[in-house]
Amino acid sequence: MIPTALPVIFILNGPTLNMLGLREPAVYGSETLADIEAACHRRAVLLNLAVDFRQSNHEGDLVTWVQDARAHAAGIILNAGAYTHTSVALHDAIRASERPVIEVHLSNIHARESFRYHSYITPVAAGIIAGFGGQGYVLALEALEGILARTKTGGQHS
Ligand code: DQA
Questions:
Q1: What's the mean pLDDT in 108-122?
Q2: Using one digit for the tens of pLDDT, what is the confidence trace for 14-44?
Q3: How far is CA 29 from CA 49, 57, 81, in A?
Q4: Closest CA to 29 of 106, 109, 136
Q5: How far is CA 39 from CA 32, 46, 90, 137, 138, in A?
Q6: CA–CA distance from 70 to each of 9, 42, 50, 156 (Å)?
Q7: CB–CB of 50/9 below 8 Å?
Q8: pLDDT (tens digit per residue) in 83-104
Q9: Are 77 and 144 in contact (CB under 8 A)?
Q10: Is 105 a catalytic residue?
Q11: What lines the ligand 1 site, CB under 6 Å?
Q12: Fold for domain 8-152?
C-alpha cells in the first residue's frame, strides 16, 4: 500500500552543531550538518519516513520542538549537543512528549572528558548511538523505523 502521509521524524540538533565541518574536525569530522541532513532524507525515503530536520543554539527552541513532537511527529532523533549534559528541561520535555527518542552523538562521549559522561537524555531515550559521526543519524532512523513498526505508532502523522 502506498502511504498517503508518512510518519514524521523530528531530527533536532543543539548548540554549535551548525558549525560542523569547521568545528574541531578531529573530533567531529568534516561533514557539515547539511551533509547529514541530506543523508537522512535519502535514507528516510527508503524507510517510508518523512524527516523534519532542525538546529538551534537555544535550549528553549529545542524544548518547544520536543513538545511539538507529541502532536506532529511519530518519533525524535536528538543530538542536544552540550545541553545533553545540563538540561533537565529537555529531559522533562521528552517525558511529556510521549514519543520515542533516539539520542545521537557524533563523538563517543564516553571516550572524552568526564563531564560528557552524564546525559540527562539517556534515561528518557529509547536508545543511544554515539561515536559513528553522521552515520549515527542514519542508524537512528533505522532504529526508529523498527520501533514504530513494532509499536504501530507509525500512524501518527503531521
Ligand atoms: C556532541 C557531544 C557533546 O558532548 C558536545 O557538547 C556536542 C556534540 C556530539 O555530537 O558528539 O556539542 O553531542
A1: 97
A2: 999 999 999 999 999 999 999 999 999 999 9
A3: 27, 20, 15
A4: 106
A5: 11, 11, 26, 9, 7
A6: 11, 25, 16, 9
A7: yes
A8: 999 999 999 999 999 999 999 9
A9: yes
A10: yes
A11: 16, 79, 81-82, 84, 105-107, 109, 116
A12: Rossmann fold (3.40.50)
35, three cell numbers: 551533509
Going from N- to C-terminal start, the domains of the chain cover: 8-152
User: Given ligand 1 and candidates 24, 83, 84, which is best to mutate, with the most ligand atoms within 8 Å of its CB?
Assistant: 84
Q: Match 502523522 to its residue by C-alpha cell.
A: 157
pLDDT of residue 152: 78
Query: Cα dihedral sign for 66, 72, 75, 76?
Result: negative
| pLDDT-derived band at 130, boundaries 50, 70, 90 | very high
Tell how far the Cα of 60 is from the centroid of ligand 1, in angstroms.
18
pLDDT of residue 66: 98
- Structure-block grid coordinates of residue 95: 517525558
